Amino acid sequence: EVQLVESGGGLVQPGGSLTLSCAASGFTSSSYWMSWVRQAPGKGLEWVANIKQDGSEKYYVDSVKGRFTISRVNAKNSLYLQMNSLRAEDTAVYYCARESPDGYNFDFWGQGTLVTVSS
Amino acid sequence: QSALTQPASVSGSPGQSITISCTGTSSDVGGYKYVSWYQQHPGKAPKLMIYEVSNRPSGVSNRFSGSKSGNTASLTISGLQAEDEADYYCCSYKNRVFGGGTKLTVL
Asked: In the prediction, which pLDDT does A68 show?
């Protein structure tokens, strides 16, 4: 059974940093692109970043470029999101999502981890 | 990249059919077949319901169907059931942009 379990969320002050983790199981994560998608309270979904199978390509939504870094350690079946210079508008539930083998959609999602940026 | 446009809410009675629209541009919805739909119950993770405009993943009820015409994609749910009450989001993978979401209420 495919499972994605996020961790690392919490309360952080504006300007602070946080690293999210996503542990994958039930599939060979090294064979898939992986993404982070977030959802602000009461709002819709927003794609944040994704990373190629071998980590050689990474893409980000404009609003987080230069502040967030996506990475992966395939040997640990793990995905990460390093978030720096956090702003109030980064407050959201962050989901880890697997991109389907043929690409073009997100076929499995984790349960999410809440990040709250507030003083 | 602007979000795709969905109606904020739709409703229907059990057994009826409803359609949720998702409008973009020729640069996203209209130009590519990479439109997907996600169902999200309150406090839960999104679930893939339709991919590549009209394909259903294994395990998704055939009451869910998708289509596209021009720059607008549509999700149709037939034979509405109480468990279908949820938020629904479309997505154009080309630009990795989601719609604003539609709240489906089963009356």
From this structure: 98
